[in-house]
Specification:
Layout (H helix, E strand, L loop, with lengths): L1 H67 L13 H14 L8 E11 L17 E13 L9 E11 L4
Antiparallel strand pairs: 1-2, 2-3
Length: 168
């Protein structure tokens, strides 16, 4: 009889201990869940920021490509204006669902020296190998994200693309 009582007594003590741990599991879940949720949100928002960064880089590349591409021969091969380049960038941003009116500090430098040269002639003929002309397009785009427990809400994503002039 004594063996049976002690076996039942151990089971009773074990059940009592398991019942006490049920509340601690709830506390652990309550502490871990917000951290896990914040981590998942951070993964989502930083993925979206990367997507926007790639998109604005592509738009700047499109603008630089439009700036260095030769124009029609009957037009006199005049380089495009900064407004025309910004229009190309805006179209590329709109195509990817971004708002072009949020672009800040837009700068399109056409017929600029590249690769460390100091001057750039207006005509690409007769350039030495050290004098490479091209276009530089740069701008910033604000990205706002919402992470709980953080103070950072807006990040300005910057891009700059330089491209060498093409032969007409």
């Amino acid at each position: 009889m004594r063996g049976e009582e002690s076996a039942f007594g151990c089971a009773s003590v074990l059940r009592h201990q398991l019942a006490d741990e049920g509340g601690s599991e709830m506390v652990e879940v309550a502490l871990v869940f917000p951290m896990l949720f914040t981590l998942l949100l951070a993964i989502f928002w930083f993925g979206r920021a990367y997507n926007i960064d790639v998109t604005i880089y592509r738009a700047a590349r499109e603008g630089a490509r439009a700036a260095v591409a030769p124009s029609c021969a009957t037009c006199g091969n005049a380089p495009p204006s900064s407004a025309q380049i910004q229009n190309v960038v805006n179209q590329a941003l709109s195509a990817d669902g971004l708002n072009p009116s949020q672009v800040q500090s837009f700068q399109a430098l056409i017929n600029q020296p590249l690769a460390g040269t100091m001057t750039c002639p207006s005509s690409p003929q007769g350039l030495s190998s050290a004098q490479i002309c091209g276009a530089v397009v740069s701008f910033t785009y604000p990205f706002s994200f919402h992470l709980p427990f953080t103070a950072i809400n807006v990040v300005n994503l910057s891009t700059q693309v330089q491209m060498e002039e093409e032969d007409p």
